[in-house]
Amino acid sequence: MAVKFELDYTAIERLEMKMAKLPEKMEDAVNDVLHVDGVRIATEEITRLLPVSKQNGKIRNKRHAKHSNWSRSEKINLGFVIKTRGGAANKKGSFGYLVFPNEGRGAHNPVEQRFMERGLKAATPKILSKLHERVDKILKEEL
């Protein structure tokens, strides 16, 4: 399971106009914000939505992805990808339930979760705010 964040210029026209003033300085700054703050913010928002397994209404006494290092990220130009560390459910330390959360597969996961997409959607305004801050700072320093 993975979720990919990329800049969508139709949604950020104001940012694009700012970036056009000093294009040679912006790509590195945008990548820096996305690869550090963007990944952190998106991971936090997704983690907030991760399920914690329960049995008979009580939280099961086991390691849960929500309280662990459940993800890994890949840097791409003007974006990033967050992937789950899910794996085979029978492997110790694996979060097998993160492999197919959107389809609601499994006896204990009958409902679609969509926590990756919902978390990224919640993170997008915060990430865009960080991008605006960085771009404004560069423009203030340079102009």
Indicate the mean pLDDT.
82
Q: Helix segment count?
A: 3
- The rounded distance between the terminal residues' Cα atoms is 43 Å
Determine the fraction of residues in helical runs and give it as a percent range: 40-55%
Main sheet characteristics: 3 strands, antiparallel
> How much is the radius of gyration in Å?
18 Å
- What pattern of helices and strands is seen along the backbone? EHHEEEEH
Query: How many domains make up the coordinates?
Result: 1
Percentage beta strand = 5-15%
Helix-and-strand structural type: alpha+beta
Count all strands and give the number. Answer: 5
Describe the global form.
Answer: elongated
Question: Ranges with pLDDT <50 over ≥5 residues?
Answer: none
* Sheet with most strands: strand arrangement: 1-5-4
Strands, helices and their partners?
Blueprint: E1 2-6, H1 13-19, H2 23-49, E2 54-55, E3 58-59, E4 71-76, E5 79-84, H3 115-142
Walk me through what this model shows:
By secondary structure, the chain is of the alpha+beta class. The protein has one domain (2-8, 25-142). It has helices at 13-19, 23-49, 115-142, and strands spanning 2-6, 54-55, 58-59, 71-76, 79-84. The strands form two sheets. A three-stranded antiparallel beta sheet has the order 1-5-4, covered by helices on one side. Strand 2 (54-55) and strand 3 (58-59) form a beta hairpin. Helix 2 packs antiparallel against helix 3 (115-142). It starts with a strand and ends with a helix. The model has no long low-confidence stretch (mean pLDDT 82).
